[in-house]
Amino acid sequence: MSDTDGKKPLGLRGSGSRPGNVKQSFSHGRTKNVVVETKRKRVVVPKASTGSGAGGGAAVSGDPKKRPAGISEAELERRMKALAMARAREADEAEKRATEEKERAEERDRRRAEAEAKEREEKEREEALKARAEEEERQKREAEEAKRAGARKKDAPAATATAAPSASPADAQAAAQQAEAGRAGGPRKADRDNRDNRSGDKTAGRPKPGRDEDTRRTGRLTLNQALGEGGGRQRSMAAMKRKQERARQKAMGGSVEREKVVRTVQVPEAITVHELANRMSERVGDVVKALMNNGMMVTQNQSIDADTAELVVEEFGHKIQRVSDADVEQVIDSIEDKPEDLVNRAPIITIMGHVDHGKTSLLDAIRKANVTAGEAGGITQHIGAYQVAAPNGDLLTFLDTPGHAAFTSMRARGAQVTDIVVLVVAADDAVMPQTVEAINHAKAAKVPMIVAINKIDKPEANAEKVRTALLMHEVVVEKMSGDVQDVEVSAVTGKGLDDLLESIALQAEVLELKANPKRSAMGAVIEAQLDVGRGPVATVLIQNGTLKTGDIFVVGEKWGKVRALINDQGERVKEAGPSVPVEVLGLNGTPEAGDVLNVVETEAQAREIAEYRENVAKEKRAAVGAATTLEQLMQKAKDDKDVAELPVLVKADVQGSAEAIVQALEKVGNDEVRVRVLHSGVGAITESDIGLAEASGMPVIGFNVRANAPARQAANQKGVEIRYYSVIYDLVDDVKAAASGLLSDEVRERFIGYAEIKEVFKVSNVGKVAGCLVTEGVARRSAGVRLLRDNVVIHEGTLKTLKRFKDEVSEVQSGQECGMAFENYEDIRAGDVIEIFERETVERSL
After folding, report:
1. 105: exposed, middle or buried (C-beta count within 10 Å: 0-12, 13-18, 19+)?
2. What is the dihedral of CA 699, 700, 706, 707, to 10 degrees?
3. Which of 88, 234, 398, 604 could form a disulfide with 228 if both were Cys (CB 3.0 to 4.6 A apart)?
4. Which is more confident, 183 or 331?
């Protein structure tokens, strides 16, 4: 088949086409001829005319034969007008550029002439000063010579007197002529020489530009070209003044050395050589040289310690001031309050005691509220802060702490920030473990204690038993001749509540509690949480000063600016004074419960302090987790080899609950199994938590929080278990049960019988068979056996056969004879004892 297939080849119709053949080459020697036709493009060019643009256009339009084909007279006339306007515009622009270039050249010449005139005047002034100094020196010298000559030639005074005046006018005339010649030609020549030297110094390090390179950038005008000469960098005014000062001192006959400036150099724990040189205002090369002289081969980018830097600073004659990274916290140092600024403040009372002794119910009776009804399980699992008005009108600030064993840290924080501790003890339950712990916290904080004997309305209540039990822990109440107040109260009936408030007011009056509300605020974080709509929220108890909206503060490793303050009634307030609990919004993260809040002046200080504390905490965590020596690392790996771990991820509603759960779970376990909390946080369960749980193969525990929709979907897809809890009892029990599943089952042996070998028989196809008498218990076919010889175990295994007469039986009772054969063992003798036992597995629990 041909390339054309009988079809006519395609081509360009019309005249003006030129056909041709093109030979195309392909791989493997293949070629192909292709017909190519080219057509010239029609270009319309108007003919030039000797007349004007309009006259030429009229001539062309008047002669239709000379006008290009396809263009009308109007089109041609429009094109000719556009061409004429373009030429006129180009001529105007060229003229404008020439004018601007001329103006710039005149400006450069004027500035250059002004600079030369100024420099000439400076040089003339210097020359005049120098000539004046030389003239004075010469006159002084001539006067001395004249005096000496007068002393030597006393015989010819008249000749000396006539010679000196005749010589002086001649010398003066010569000096004047020399000065005039110097002014006429000297400054110009010196100016040219200095200019040549300066230009030679600038162009010494690079090749001299040619003629074409000088005019290469003439179209661009720079600031140096407009203000300076030759396009080089001009000397600054300070440099010119220094040069004039040096010239003046040189003309006066001497130079004055600069006085050494002694500086106070701040040196941190580690500093680079370059930074040390900058702080001393010394050359880096000199500092490196000084260090090398002391035997340290360092470069400018290497760090040196503070002791070495101190030697260098003293060697250069400066004063050193040691600083450290911890100096950033000096801005929050405590300030001594003036006595006239102190005012009375409300006392802070912490309610402590054992779980279910009625602490929250007692506080509800005082506040006339019902907090207990909203708590899961009827127990308090958070620390709460409330402010109550006493019957006499005074304000009291109460802190309600949990009584569960897991919330030790919360009780410790409550005791640290309190002024008075109210120890609640149930009259029907006496002193319990958490009661003893509360007593120890109060003693450690050195705060006074008031004992409230609650549930006095119950028939089985026994207040004397409580007072007697408190004696064992060195708490002696007033009714037993002690100094600790005790009040019998009932949260249900309200009995004794007024007496309790009166005792608190009396104790607060004795303490004389005062604070300064005019200073910057300082407080303690009671609780912190991550709210979905409000972000990180911290419950802060102000201890001193006043916290206002807009204040910048730092709390632990976090910082922020107060966006809003909310009191215990849920109302927004503008400021909070001493002993006032408020919720603070505006943090950049969730702080730890127990952190101290301090107000600073600027945001930069707050950020710097928070970063420093975060780095210190990170270094501490790294130091705790790292092994100090290789032997310790190997020993730790060996110890962990046989320990099974149950990893968990904990998310709680507040920081204190998360801390308490982590501490409770870390106590679960023994030498074989332990619970490891890989991550704990505050807020809802997120998708990133599910990803971490999937990677580590661990469940997610949510305490009073829930997973958001993306997290639930991810958990369903990845098979991650999420468990929700609202009571800490249930959480700890479930984790303990799950950890118990990692324990290996305990194997116990139960002896079921003994048999004595009377005779040994050899049976074909079976081997040795022992004729036995069961002396105790029962012998079973499926049980394990031990062979004892002289009360020494020589074999342990299983039975191959157990026969009674000729029948195979499953067991043989005591007092009966039977035949036994051991599995893979035949070293049996008459008189040996067979011990028969069974193994059973028992599940272990923590």
Report:
1. exposed
2. -80
3. 234
4. 331
pTM exceeding the 0.70 threshold for the entire prediction? no
The Cα–Cα gap between 154 and 123 comes to: 45
Question: What does the pLDDT look like over 481-499, one tens digit per residue?
Answer: 888 888 999 888 888 888 8
Average pLDDT value for residue range 678-707: 89
300 contacts 273 by C-beta, under 8 angstroms: yes
What gap in Å lies between CA 408 and CA 352, rounded to an integer? 11
Rounded to whole angstroms, how far apart are CA atoms 484 and 467?
A: 11
**Checking DSSP bridges between strand 420-426 and strand 449-454, what pairing results, if any?**
parallel
Cα Rg of the chain (Å, integer): 53
Q: How far apart are CA 726 and CA 282, in angstroms?
A: 67
Provide the token pair at 668: 């679960």
Taking Cα atoms as reference points, which of 578, 593, 514 lies closest to residue 543?
Answer: 578
The span from the CA of 47 to the CA of 61, in Å, is 11
Question: Got the DSSP string for 687-707?
Answer: HHHHHHHHHHT--EEEES--B
* Joined tokens for residue 616: 């210190």
- Residue 690: closest CA among 703, 699, 682: 699
Residue 91, judged by CB atoms within 10 A of its CB (0-12, 13-18, 19+), counts as: exposed
> Comparing C-alpha atoms, which of 500, 526, 517, 353 is closest to residue 424?
353
Other beta carbons within 10 angstroms of residue 672's beta carbon come to 14
Q: Which residues contact 747 (CB under 8 A, 6 or more apart)?
A: 839, 840, 841, 842
Per DSSP, what are the bridge partners of residue 755?
774, 834
| Mean pLDDT computed over 744-773 | 86
Residue 318 contacts residue 263 (beta carbons within 8 Å): yes
Rounded to an integer, what distance in angstroms lies between the CA atom of residue 528 and that of residue 520? Answer: 22
Taken in order 361, 364, 369, 375, the sign of the CA dihedral is: negative
Residue-wise pLDDT for 289-340, tens only, equals 999 998 888 898 998 988 999 999 999 989 988 877 677 777 676 677 788 8
Tell me the Ramachandran region of residue 666: left when phi exceeds 0, alpha when psi lies from -120 to 50, beta otherwise: alpha
In sequence order, the 6+-apart residues with CB closer than 8 A to the CB of 517 are 343, 545, 546, 577, 578
In sequence order, what DSSP letters do the residues of 256-323 get, joined into one string?
PPPPPPP-EEEE-SEEEHHHHHHHHT--HHHHHHHHHHTT----TTSEEEHHHHHHHHHHTT-EEEE-
In three-state secondary structure terms, 204 is coil
Q: How many residues does the structure list for the chain? A: 846
Instruction: State the SS3 of 352-413.
Output: EECCCCCHHHHHHHHHCCCCHHHCHHHCCCCCEEEEEECCCCCEEEEEECCCCHHHHHHHHH
Give me the long-range contacts of 36-39 (CB less than 8 A, separation at least 24). Answer: 37/11, 37/12, 39/12, 39/14
User: Is the Cα torsion angle 199, 201, 202, 203 positive or negative in sign?
Assistant: positive
Of the candidates 796, 675, 811, the residue with the CA atom closest to the CA atom of residue 732: 675
Q: Cα separation of 759 and 487, whole Å?
A: 86
The whole-angstrom distance between residue 403's C-alpha and the CA centroid of its chain comes to 36
Residue keyed to tokens 């509220």: 369
Q: Token pair 């509800």 is at which residue?
A: 364
> What b/e sequence results for 556-576 when a residue is b if at least 16 CB atoms lie within 10 Å of its CB, and e otherwise?
bbbbbebeebbbbeeeebebb
Instruction: State which amino acid sits at residue 368.
Output: K
How far is C-alpha 693 from the geometric centre of its chain's CA atoms?
25
CA atoms of 375 and 384, how far apart (whole Å): 12
Q: Smallest Cα–Cα separation from 345: which of 125, 581, 579, 72?
A: 579
Specify the amino acid at residue 603: E
Which two structure tokens, joined as six digits, stand for 302? 């290497």
Tokens representing 244?
Answer: 């004039």
Which amino acid is residue 690, in one-letter code? I
